[in-house]
Amino acid sequence: MQIELLIFLGVCGYGVLWTLLSARRIYEYPGFMTFAFGVFLVPQAFSLAKFPGAASAASVSSVFWMCALCLLACILGYRMRPHSKIRQLATVPANESVLLIGGACFLAVALVMGSLIGRMTEEETGGGMWTGKVTIYHFFTGVIFPAMAIFFRHALRKRGVVSWFLFALSLIPPLQATILAGRREATSQLFLTIGLVLLFEKRITPPRWVVPVAAAAAMLIIPATGNYRAIASTKEWDKLENLDLVGNFKNFVNRESILELRNAAVLIQSTRARGEYDWGTGYWDEVIWRFVPAQVIGKDLKDWLMVGRDSDEAEEAFAKEGFQVSIGSTLTGVGDSFREFGFMGAGVFALFGMFFRTMWSAASRSGAVFAQLLYIGTVTSAMRAVTHQTVDFLPGLIYQLIFVGLLYGVARRKVVERQVRSRRRGARNPATHKPRALRRNPNHEHGLQGSVNNLNERSGSRIASNEST
Predict the structure, then answer these.
(1) Please, which residues have CB within 8 angstroms of residue 141's CB and are 6 or more apart in sequence?
(2) d(Cα 65, Cα 56) in Å, to the nearest integer?
(3) Is 150 exposed, middle or buried (CB count within 10 Å of its CB: 0-12, 13-18, 19+)?
(4) Which of 65, 95, 199, 325 fits a disulfide with 411 by CB distance 3.0 to 4.6 angstroms?
């Protein structure tokens, strides 16, 4: 076994031990990132070592080093001190009623957009690679998860029938994506949202044995995702009985398969052969791709705004290595961070760790609703940085800041307005807002003058008593 692979496994082992020391650590950045690396990349690493394919021995060695460095950067970045000013801004209380109304608006938007997508034909959506109006509709369906967190949080606090009903309604789209489409990200977001809300509101944590069991189950399920999606698309649910998870996992490891980690190795190989790095342009391009609609400004202007390498150039680079990325597979965050900065790209995961350290410190405080919603909404974006690419994290964070930040700004403003009105009422009727010490002593009613008068009275009484003696 290669020494680089052993080092990667050693870092994973340290992350597992760190996570198991406390039940709540699975929700902290090093914990869930270790889970993502271990579940998604470790089985592929064993398979890649046996079947490198078009990847050279040097690129396989480099991708293992990169895996170890990226996970180590997650652990070290999280050890940095939280940013006090950001933590302070994220912990200001918000109006609960406004949050509930905003969550209801999010739910309505997500349901309407989901309905519009459901009515579109395969020709209108562009088939497997969505394009056109469907991308705009899909953009707004993501607000279902902040809505779910708001409803569940409110239901646990107020125990109202309306809150529980809205929470149950918000579960429908994620469950549809999980059961009918086999979407891994939606499944992760669903369980993490419920788990984190229970932690923040009730301090409920899963038993420690749940973490290794969930990791083992995920390792078995991920290689079978493609087979499940094929069954779900044909609605032939009786074939699930023949789905051999253990056998499929063994074949995945012991036979040559489509590996995202092989894509990453070949990407490292092609980047070295070209001798050029993107130096962060990929992060800018992904933001433009996600938030600037070509239907509004035109495709030519959108392409002009993107300064990095286009997809055709990337395919040509792979073709020179005699390799083609399979449809539906990813480059992984290990590969795309190397394309941006080389081995220094591991530092991207350290930056993510610094962000989550501050957010965790803020979200752990009672009533810090903005920090909690932002944390819940960005956890899967961080895990996606492992399974897909690191350039996906920034658009995910911006998305949450736009929608959750807008709602929080309104809800926070209501709290501030209420505090201002309370102060104004106190200014109009000062008699009802006297300090407690002043209300107990009527001589202090007029402030300093009352104290002087009191002193004069005492002095006069002493003089009178001396004269009488």
Answers:
(1) 110, 113, 114, 117, 173
(2) 14
(3) buried
(4) 95
